[in-house]
Hints:
Number of domains: 2
Mean pLDDT: 79
Largest sheet: none
Shape: globular
Order of helices and strands: HHHHH
Helix content: over 70%
Structural class: mainly alpha
Number of helices: 5
Distance between the termini: 36 Å
Amino acid sequence: MQAVAREGIRLVSEYLPRVMRNPSDNKAHEAIGLAMDLGGYAIMLGGTNGTHLTSFSLIDGLSHGRTCAIMHPCYTVLFRACDSRTVKSRRRAFQTRRIQSNEYSAT
C-alpha cells in the first residue's frame, strides 16, 4: 500500500506543475488521472482515515478534495506520534521535489 501511495504522490508532484503550466498537456493529464486511481487503490488496500471520513461532513460548502486538503494537516499533527513511519514516508515523498505554494497559483 505504501508503494502505491508513494507512486501517486510522485506522479502528482511531477505532473501537476506541468498541467498548471500547460493545460493542453495530455500526458500530464493522464499521469494525474493515474495518480487519482492510485489514491483510490491505496485507500482500498489500506483503508481510509479521519481526513477522508471528516471531509464528507464538510462537502456542503466545499469539494471533497478541498476538504481533504484542509483536514489532512490537522490529522497529521493529531496522529504524528502514533504513526511516525507514515508521516516520515510522506515527508520524504514530497521532499524529493520541493513544491512551492506559488507553483499552483492560477495566474
